[in-house]
Specification:
Blueprint: H1 3-24, H2 28-46, H3 54-79
Helix pairs in contact: 1-2, 2-3
């Protein structure tokens, strides 16, 4: 297994652990943070066939996920 692949799997396991901790701890903020990390990783990998550097794809993927997470936290603040 390539080092990059192992690192991606580790990232997914950490993000899934954050989601699980948020769900078990009844914390929507932590859950959304973990879900945002998973969404960022998914976007990064979806953009792989388009080309570009990992750095560029990471900025796009995690940037979009950050917007989603901040929006969800604002929504939780006003709804909950």
């Amino acid at each position: 297994m390539a080092a990059y692949t192992a690192f991606q799997l580790l990232e997914v396991l950490v993000a899934a652990g954050i989601v699980l901790a948020g769900v078990l701890g009844h914390s929507p903020y932590v859950t959304v943070l973990g879900a945002g990390l998973l969404i960022g990783k998914a976007i990064l990998n979806i953009l792989a066939p388009e080309g570009g550097t990992v750095y560029r794809r990471s900025l796009i993927g995690y940037g979009a996920a950050a917007v989603l997470v901040v929006g969800a936290i604002i929504l939780f603040h006003f709804v909950g």
